[in-house]
Design brief:
The chain has 221 residues and is of the alpha+beta class. It has one domain (20-211): Alpha-D-Glucose-1,6-Bisphosphate, Chain A, domain 4 (2-Layer Sandwich). The protein is built from five helices and ten strands; from the N terminus they run αβββααβββββββαα. Strands 1, 2, 3, 4, 5, 6, 7, 8, 9 and 10 form a ten-stranded mixed beta sheet that branches. The radius of gyration is 17 Å and the shape is globular.
Length: 221
């Protein structure tokens, strides 16, 4: 499933591209940066959870349809998303909703994880901003040998047109990987996931099948 396929996800949301002062007010703290690609990663504590949430922000030169085409291509995740060894589309719930299986590798002694993700997309007709939300639906696919099933996860992609073929991208994630994970590995995972995933997005969006993709479900600004 890629640019020529109809993108099937949905959720509403109108959020601005947060400035650092506003992020600080909301509890986000800068954790990593890739100055060459203009990627910044923030983390913050989440009440009731031992794991922090992470947020990666960057700006990408691309059409909205191109980015949506890449993010919707479940079969390609292992090529550009962090630590993913296998992924596949399980079910097209509607034109704008998907259920996806994702298996992640972790370094020894941590057991690999997998998750089943329900994703939704909404595009605001006025601002053309796209927000995709994700949440774990662990019971939607049988548990797999050699993996710990992630039972709680929320996340989102937010794509905000800035003009001049520039799109402000936010990738936010709050997983609870479950089981035993050393603090050192857990903390690195929280920061490295958005950092390396956004690096992968910058690289993959140049591929012609994504760069040139336009979708009839996505309104360009």
């Amino acid at each position: 499933m890629h640019g020529s396929a109809v993108f099937r996800w949905v959720l509403a949301g109108m959020l601005v591209f947060w400035s650092p002062p506003l992020l600080a007010e909301q509890g986000w703290e800068k954790a990593a940066e890739d100055a060459d690609r203009q990627i910044v990663v923030y983390t913050r504590s989440v009440e009731g959870s031992p794991f922090k949430a992470s947020r990666g922000v960057t700006t990408v030169e691309a059409a909205l349809g191109a980015i949506v085409s890449l993010v919707s291509d479940a079969d390609s995740y292992s090529e550009w998303m962090y630590n993913i060894k296998r992924s596949m589309l399980l079910e097209q719930v509607s034109r704008l909703e998907n259920i996806i299986y994702i298996a992640q590798r972790f370094p020894w002694p941590v057991t690999d994880r997998d998750m089943v993700v329900y994703a939704k997309l909404h595009q605001d007709p006025d601002s053309k901003q796209i927000v995709i939300t994700m949440k774990a639906v662990p019971g939607a696919y049988p548990e797999q040998d050699g993996h710990v099933r992630v039972t709680r996860m929320t996340g989102k992609w937010q794509l905000t047109p800035k003009g001049g073929n520039q799109v402000a991208v936010i990738y936010e994630l709050h997983p609870d990987p479950g089981g035993y994970i050393p603090t050192r590995i857990a903390n690195a995972y929280i920061v490295d996931t958005p950092l390396h995933t956004l690096r992968g997005l910058h690289r993959m969006i140049r591929e012609p099948k994504y760069r040139d993709a336009r979708l009839d479900t996505v309104m360009e600004p």
